[in-house]
Write a structure and sequence with these properties.
Elements lengths: L1 E6 L3 H12 L5 E4 L12 E3 L5 H7 L3 H7 L7 E5 L4 E5 L13 E3 H10 L6 E3 L3 E6 L5 E5 L4 E9 L17 E12 L2 H4 L1 H7 L3 E6 L2 E7 L5 E8 L4 H4 L7 H9 L7 H9 L1 E11 L12 E3 L2 H4 L8 H17 L4 H26 L5 H11 L5
Parallel strand pairs: 1-2, 1-10, 2-7, 4-12, 10-16
Antiparallel strand pairs: 3-6, 4-5, 8-9, 9-10, 11-14, 11-15, 12-13, 13-14
GO cellular component, one term: cytoplasm
GO biological process, one term: response to antibiotic
Pfam families: FAD_binding_3 (PF01494)
């Protein structure tokens, strides 16, 4: 019997497996992707010192992380919908402050963790379908294709729609009232120099009335653009926008931003390729469940929240590292869960508050005040 089975090879599951490996404990990760390059792994992430960076230190990967981190990605510009610059922050060029919260591309971060694990750790193309408790303890995991795997400890690190979570709680995802749409600008510096200059080295945000348009530069020369707005849960189906026709979809999306500055909407015009629609869901803030020996959850499987706290990856990696240390130390996992869920609750409530602030009828003013308070400045 395999001692530890992890569902999901995201950043949380990989961090858990790597820190366990550092302590001489092996695990098996069951992952639905058919390989490490089976799909696009998203854009860029900023890892906090106490969150993702601490987890990578426990994983023995600080040097590798700093080699892929982009301190300049901490640059930030904030505009209103009319194109007025409200705030600008520039990352320090040297010293420890460079690594306060630098950006790192998710694909490179995932590769760093994968390369630090034995090849046999991840079982690609093995999607977890369901899991059940065994009479003598442990669990049986049913995988796509009919295979089963048994383990003493089952960890659900398989995201918001976790197949493991029903073993611990009936709680399910709730629609936040907002939907995001992701676009990608390829070869931004060469093909779209004016747009590239507007975004700068890091992140760009423009705030309007109950909608935002943001962008983030990635290390591969692309810029990921996100449009987020209030809409009903069935908007994707009822909007009439032909999302399978990217050019027509982008034109229709611009119509949702009437009166916005042309230089901001140029970010939509510059995009190419697929249009990805991302309705924002979350688990209830403050979610708890009774402790069940032999199974637990980490990351989005335990505490999915909107991206407006900027903590998802940090929480998942911190969860993975802390769980690994608890296992290696022979500790009762009840204490780990209590600590994880208390930490996640604080971030989840912040996320919900920030979503309301960014998509407020007040427009950009509430967001400007938020950044000023975060910097310790008078509002």
């Amino acid at each position: 019997m395999t001692r530890i089975v992890i569902a999901g090879a995201g950043l949380g599951g990989l961090t858990l497996a790597r820190v366990l490996h550092v302590h001489g404990i092996e695990a098996v990760i069951c992952e639905r992707d058919t390989g490490r390059d089976a799909r696009v792994q998203g854009g860029t992430l900023d890892l906090t010192v106490e969150g993702g960076q601490w987890a990578l230190e426990e994983a023995g990967l600080t040097e590798g992380y700093r080699a892929i981190a982009r301190p300049e990605g901490q640059d930030m510009v904030l505009y209103d919908q009319a194109g007025t610059l409200l705030r600008q922050e520039v990352a320090p060029d040297e010293g420890a402050a460079q690594f306060g919260r630098p950006e790192a591309d998710r694909p490179k971060l995932r590769a760093l963790l994968l390369d630090a694990l034995p090849e046999s750790t991840v079982r690609w193309g093995h999607a977890v379908q369901r899991a059940e408790s065994l009479p003598g303890g442990g669990h049986r995991v049913h995988l796509a294709g009919g295979e089963t795997l048994e383990g003493d400890l089952l960890v659900g690190a398989d995201g918001g729609r976790s197949r493991v979570r029903p073993l611990l709680t009936p709680a399910d995802l709730e629609y936040t009232g907002a939907t995001g749409v992701e676009l990608v600008i390829a070869d931004a510096d060469r093909a779209h120099p004016e747009v590239s200059a507007l975004v700068g080295r890091g992140s760009f945000s423009a705030i309007g009335t109950q909608r935002t348009l943001s962008a983030q530069r990635c290390g591969d020369g692309t810029i990921h653009v996100h449009l987020t707005f209030r809409c009903p849960a069935d908007w994707v189906r009822t909007s009439g926008i032909p999302f399978n026709d990217p050019a027509r979809a982008r034109a229709a999306l611009k119509e949702l931003y009437p009166g916005w500055a042309p230089e901001i909407l140029a970010l939509v015009d510059a995009a190419s390729g697929p249009v990805t629609v991302l309705p924002l869901h979350a688990l209830p803030p403050g979610l708890r469940w009774p402790h069940h020996p032999g199974r637990t959850l980490i990351g989005d499987a335990a505490h999915l929240m909107s991206p407006y706290a900027g903590q998802g990856a940090n929480l998942a990696m911190q969860d993975g590292a802390e769980l690994a240390l608890a296992i290696a130390g022979g500790q009762d996992l009840r204490a780990f869960e209590e600590s994880m869920l208390a930490r996640a609750e604080r971030s989840a409530r912040m996320s919900a508050e920030n979503l309301d602030r960014f998509l407020s009828p007040r427009g950009a003013e509430g967001v400007r005040e938020l950044f000023a308070r975060m910097a310790g400045e008078p509002v």
